[in-house]
Amino acid sequence: MTTDRRTPLDAVHDALGATMTDFAGWRMPLRYGSERDEHTAVRTTAGLFDLTHMGEIEVTGPEAARALDHALVGFVSKIGIDRARYTMICTEEGGIVDDLIVYRLGEEHFVVVANASNADVVAGSLKHRSTDFDATVRDASEEYTLLAVQGPASTGIVGSLTDADLPALKYYAILRTEVAGVPVLLARTGYTGEDGFELFAAPGDAVALWDALLAAGKPHGLVPAGLSCRDTLRLEAGMPLYGHELTRDTTPYEANLGRVVRLDKPEDFVGREALAAAEADVRRTLVGLTSPGKRVPRAGYPVVDADSGERVGEVTSGAPSPTLGVPIAMAYVASERAEPGTRLAVDIRGKAEPVEVVALPFYKRG
Amino acid sequence: MHAPQHLRYSKEHEWLDEAASPAVVGITRHAAEALGDVVFVELPEVGRVVVAGEPCGELESTKSVSDMYAPVSGEVVEINDAVVEDPALVNSDPFGAGWLFKVRIDGEAEGLLSADEYAAFCGE
């Protein structure tokens, strides 16, 4: 895949000295300086992220809600206006195509946010799955830049740039407002385990909005933050990542996310039959692992029985946790090994290193 | 590209200070920046005989783990305890306080690059 897509902040990242990386065909900031410092800033003050690579798909029309009820596993028509819901799109076989946040902007107006690598696939599937409904599906990714301010200082920073009533903006709620004079959709959502906001704006306003947030945030300790710390932040928060914890070969039940599948929806939806069967037969389960050592279990490493060496699972994500100071990982293991406290090992390049199953998340904000 | 002239370099991004006695080995700034924050350094034990071009340790960073390759064959005579204690030294001072180990060279160092050749190799 070529890196040919650039965010409107591309030159800004270069000017900040960012190390850039390819992510799903986008040229994105990996880190600006030390990724551990960026991670710590988000946990203690705030970080500013460019997330323009995320896909935004608009679904509108009289039957937009019903179309999404059919296409997704969640009960979308139950989402209140100006509220959001974490959900998934699954295959007929119950496998996860992507995890999504659905924002409801009006009775007949939804914005579905998909992962960058899946935006085309999700848009295509939504179009295909809504053909029998009076609804229009449109990939609007080009019309939005997405910035995120995450961390305990977020409210003070965003609040200094808007008249919006931020204390009234609840977790997983969204409103139309202006921030620094820029029209935005301001959502209280994120992927870091901290309080924070995601701001959808027109690409032409991206630089002005970024500069205003950075300037307003500086006295609060806000720093620009790259995808590298975003990954360790979400891992500590026990949040799954598409391509790692979530794939077409995994079901929401295996990922401990069965709560997002609404088998109680009145009408049929794509994957329902397979998911109902999958719920009753969860053979492997996503768990957290911590290691007393220094070596880090990484994606793809085998999880093995500590004594026999028998393979019982596989690591999906792993990193040295900046907050906890120890290696942490998520892994799929045989369900009978998933109880917190279970002692297992990870084959780290030929040597079995002891690990313990722990409850997720690794980190919860106080 | 910052690559001190008095060092020689491997294509695996280690540097070797042959003028020192015993010779000193580390990783380059280019490598340290590519790794990101180094959080764990596993060095070869003192007394171990390392072989040029073969893995002799590991560097764990937030995003990845990399093998450390011996730029030269010989016996490890000292390791940098400070970098084991504080792996961030690899990022902050890769050519100085972030050195990794000292080696008594067995024979001649072969196939290493000059600073200019290494800079060209890194494409800078």
UniProtKB/TrEMBL annotation, chain A:
Residues 284-364 form the Aminomethyltransferase C-terminal domain. It catalyses: N(6)-[(R)-S(8)-aminomethyldihydrolipoyl]-L-lysyl-[protein] + (6S)-5,6,7,8-tetrahydrofolate = N(6)-[(R)-dihydrolipoyl]-L-lysyl-[protein] + (6R)-5,10-methylene-5,6,7,8-tetrahydrofolate + NH4(+). It comes from the Bacteria. Residues 11-265 form the GCVT N-terminal domain. Its EC number is 2.1.2.10. Pfam families: GCV_T, GCV_T_C. One of its GO terms (cellular component) is cytosol. GO terms for molecular function: aminomethyltransferase activity; methyltransferase activity; transaminase activity. Keywords: Aminotransferase, Methyltransferase, Transferase. Substrate binds at residue 198. GO terms for biological process: glycine decarboxylation via glycine cleavage system; methylation. Belongs to the GcvT family. The glycine cleavage system is composed of four proteins: P, T, L and H. The glycine cleavage system catalyzes the degradation of glycine. This is Aminomethyltransferase. It comes from Embleya hyalina.
UniProtKB/TrEMBL annotation, chain B:
The keyword Cell cycle does not apply. One of its GO terms (cellular component) is cytosol. Residues 22-104 form the Lipoyl-binding domain. Signal peptide: none annotated. Keywords: Lipoyl. Its cofactor is (R)-lipoate. InterPro entries: 2-oxoA_DH_lipoyl-BS, Biotin_lipoyl, GCV_H, GCV_H/Fam206, GCV_H_sub, Single_hybrid_motif. The keyword Ribosomal protein does not apply. Binds 1 lipoyl cofactor covalently. Pfam families: GCV_H. GO terms for biological process: glycine decarboxylation via glycine cleavage system; protein lipoylation. The modification N6-lipoyllysine is found at residue 63. Belongs to the GcvH family. The glycine cleavage system is composed of four proteins: P, T, L and H. HAMAP family: GcvH. The glycine cleavage system catalyzes the degradation of glycine. The H protein shuttles the methylamine group of glycine from the P protein to the T protein. This is Glycine cleavage system H protein. It comes from Embleya hyalina.
